[in-house]
Design brief:
Length: 301
């Protein structure tokens, strides 16, 4: 039986690890906030006190961490993964981090005779719970195939994007579009609602017209209901948009829409919406138009 170390039990990581446990894998978990390990322990996971403890002797180590600095701490810090990596172990990082750091960590893992895959995901909390995530993976095809069963347990689709770093780059390009689509959705609702169009009617139009998108499908109802319970936080989206901006700067790609979306999410973060769902960016527009999207009043009254 494959021995797995799973590090990072946040909104996405906890259900991913739980799906592995329920599929019968032997999983040892670590999280900086130890209390988050308890639900996994109740499902049969072993709990480690450090990243080193979670990685030691494992065939596969999966990390799902929030940002570059935390990844550096988990890999390079005291009692970090690299101190415990056994030869031949596969490290799968499903975090959204900069491609430059992916190359750095991949080289460090290979120097320890390990193998590295950058495998960020798309699909928010419900997809992590249901095991229907989409993985975009950078790394060697043979290594991917050696752990395909794990990906199949946690997700519905694996897309091999190329060499190490290509998974991270694809994720940032993808999330740039997610942020832009959310900004467009909020702006469209604002125009319609301020003009007296009921939000439910406008949603029907979006769903049946050419403005429809996955984000409209996932977030429109949350916007109308004012339900900003966190599926993927506004703060994490802002972090990803900043990483995407750095990548576009490095590659020389002009990204005017990315710049606008990043500024809008920065405004939402500055207003204190960071821990809410990314769809809470619409609150900026609600402030500007002076009403909630779900209000029934006619703006022309």
């Amino acid at each position: 039986m494959t021995q797995i170390g799973f590090i990072g039990l946040g909104t996405m990581g906890a259900p991913m690890a739980l799906n592995l446990l329920r599929a019968g894998y032997n999983v040892t978990v670590y999280n900086r906030t130890a209390e988050k390990c308890e639900p996994l322990k109740a499902e049969g996971a072993q709990v480690a006190a450090t990243p080193l403890g979670a990685a030691e002797g494992k065939d596969v180590i999966i990390t799902m961490i929030s940002n570059d600095d935390s990844i550096r701490e988990v890999f390079y810090g005291d009692n970090g993964i690299l101190d415990a990596l056994k030869p031949g172990a596969v490290v799968i990082d499903s975090s959204t981090i900069s491609p430059g750091l992916v190359h750095e960590v991949a080289a460090a893992v290979e120097a320890k005779s390990g193998k590295f895959l950058d495998a960020p995901v798309t699909g928010s909390k419900p997809a992590a719970i249901d095991g229907t995530l989409v993985f975009m993976v950078g790394g060697d095809a043979e290594v991917i195939e050696s752990v395909r069963g794990l990906f199949d347990t946690m997700g519905r689709l694996l897309l091999h994007m190329g060499a190490n770093g290509s998974g991270a780059a694809a994720k940032l390009a993808h999330n740039a579009m997610v942020g832009i689509h959310n900004a467009a959705l909020a702006e469209g609702f604002s125009i319609a609602v301020k003009s007296g169009v009921p939000a439910d009617k406008f949603l029907q139009l979006v769903q049946n017209g050419s403005a429809g998108s996955k984000q409209a499908e996932l977030k429109s109802r949350k916007i109308i209901d004012g339900d900003f319970s966190n599926q993927f936080s506004l703060a994490l989206m802002l972090k990803d948009l900043k990483l995407a901006t750095s990548l576009s700067d490095a590659t020389g790609v002009p990204t005017p829409m990315l710049g606008v979306a990043k500024s809008l999410f920065q405004a939402g973060y500055n207003h204190g919406f960071g821990d809410e769902d990314l769809s809470a960016v619409v609150k900026c527009y609600e402030d500007w138009i002076g009403q909630k999207m779900g209000d029934k009043r006619d703006a022309q009254e």
